[in-house]
Amino acid sequence: MRSEPAHVTDNSAVVIEETRTDDRRMLARARRIVVKVGSSSLTSIKGGISEEALTELSDALAAKCNAGAEIILVSSGAIAAGLAPLGLAKRPRDLATQQAAASVGQGLLMARYTQAFGAHGVTVSQVLLTADDLMRRSHHQNAFRALNRLLNLGVVPVVNENDTVATHKIRFGDNDRLSALVAHLVRADALVLLSDVDSLYDGPPSKGAKRIPQVDGPQDLEGVSIGSPGKAGVGTGGMQTKVEAATMAADSGIPALVTSTANAAAALAGEDVGTWFSVNSGRKSVRMMWLAHLAHVQGRLILDDGAITAVRDNHTSLLPAGITAVEGTFESGDAVEMVSADGTVIARGLVNYSASELPQMLGRSTVELGESLGRGFDREVVHVDDLVLV
Description:
Layout: H1 10-19, E1 32-37, H2 39-42, H3 51-66, E2 70-75, H4 78-83, H5 95-118, E3 124-129, H6 131-135, H7 137-152, E4 156-161, H8 175-185, E5 190-195, E6 214-215, H9 239-251, E7 256-260, H10 264-268, E8 275-277, H11 286-293, E9 297-303, H12 305-313, E10 323-328, E11 335-339, E12 345-350, H13 366-373, E13 387-389
Parallel strand pairs: 1-2, 1-5, 2-4, 3-4, 5-7, 6-8, 9-11
Antiparallel strand pairs: 7-8, 9-10, 11-12, 12-13
Helix pairs in contact: 3-5, 8-9
């Protein structure tokens, strides 16, 4: 049984935080790494899961695990694995059939991972998550405790979105974004995003584009043409979502590497492969990461200049006195955008009132509202704890 990872303690956390700003060579000594692999990297030409690709990846990850690292594998492929048994030629478009394929394929995928890792004496476990598991504090804490305990026991958790029960409204959208949230959840030292493309390029690789070895901030991506999902049609992401996930991680204090599955062993050894996204911000909570990057926005609140200053510069809650208009249809607890008069998005947050309740409150103080409309209308429209600047 392994002891608690050193980076969980306060003293050593300082050391890890310093190394996170280093280059990709830190992967060679990283203690806790989240690795994400996409469906396209695991799929054979004939369809279904490629035994060769899955075994090669498992060999690389098991070797890293046996060398003392803790690995969490966020793996797509459940839907792809379920296509053949259901007689489906390609990934279905409707959610119900996707859920059916995932239900059939998840067991098949886990059986193959169990066998491949087991050949190296490494035990794997299945962990299925929904967005709700990382949004609610009690679920979030339970997910962290379970994953942390599995890692302490030397197990490689294989994480996937719980496609069988997820709905359109609460889906992560793809496992790239899920992996960034999981990396943050478990306090990982690094995130490695694997696909069938070896690096991010400044244009189509087939047209002589140049590899982008490192991204230190948004300025390094200006003018870069980023690809969409491949022709196989078994995945949901493409390079776009990998860049978004890597940026999410880097923005929350975790460096990320985007490269191909064939480069997995080289990447974990810290070799010069792929595109490295260096840390450019401190840590955010998982909930705030979800709100900033993944929340399904239901409406907009248009703010006056005073409210913009209060929210953006003074980091305070949004009050009804600073709202000039309401757009969209939403209920209390839904995510909304806070925008300026010209439509510039200032922040996102979880609103405390419905779209039908707010119009009568605009421009009025909470004291006045409490006196005229009664108790319950004297609260903030968006509390600062449920608000993130974008």
